[in-house]
Model the fold of this input.
Amino acid sequence: MAAGPQPVAAGVRKGVAVMKERCDDNARQTRNSIRRPWWQGPAAMSDPTRFVLVHTSHAGNVGAAARAIKVMGFSELVLVRPRFADIAGRAEARAMASGATDVLDAARVVDTLDEALAGCTHACATAMTPRDFGPPTHAPRPYLGELASHGTRLALVFGPERTGLANEDVYRCHACLSIPTDPAYGSLNLAQAVQLLAYEWRQALGGFPVQPRTAPVVAADLAAVQGTLAHWEQVLVKIGFLDPAAPKKLMPRLQQLLLRAGLNTQEVHILRGIARAVDEAAAAAGRSRHEARRDRLQRPR
Done:
């Protein structure tokens, strides 16, 4: 009698074991997600570039920097001890972001530059003031062009608006980038500097293709160009500008002019339309002169 329930009991035990295994897997995944630092999250892994603003004072600069970052296809913005803890959410920042509020919403505020650089493999400071000690200074274009081939997780670090980066912050970076400006006036707004370096880094990574704004132009067929030239030759003879008995090199010169212009089909139509209009105007003028002469001859003396 006892043998009947055994298959049911075995099934229950198996089901309990499966459920326990699933719970253990979920717990492990939860622990891993909790332990993983923010800089290793999905958003950070999709964008290998981080823009770090240190001790920023003006909310508008944070918003404008977010816009500069997004327009070049980047998204990660970290703020180190800004003047206001809610600087990214202030009205001026939102207004200056001009549609890049997603970058502001995702921006992180940290207490130290070390926290901001965690997870990056290369850091570049930005500074204009010469220093007698610290990392080497480079122009952005050649340096970033070389760096792009290394698969780097890059942090671009910008200092406060008024003073720039402190020496101890510059020392934490591999290199110092200096944007070449007029020696007599090298003052750049924070957001302008962010835009320039974001552009240079994007170009180093391959850039974006230029999107055409107009329909493609269809080049005129050479036979159509020659037909236009012949049409103009007829009109020029008719109005007396070209003497067929002594043409000199007028028509060859006009031919070279049209070839250098690289006419498209619409331009050929325009030139032929002008020739027709000149022809008709010349014919009308001739009729008017003929009628005026006839009227003079028929007038009683």
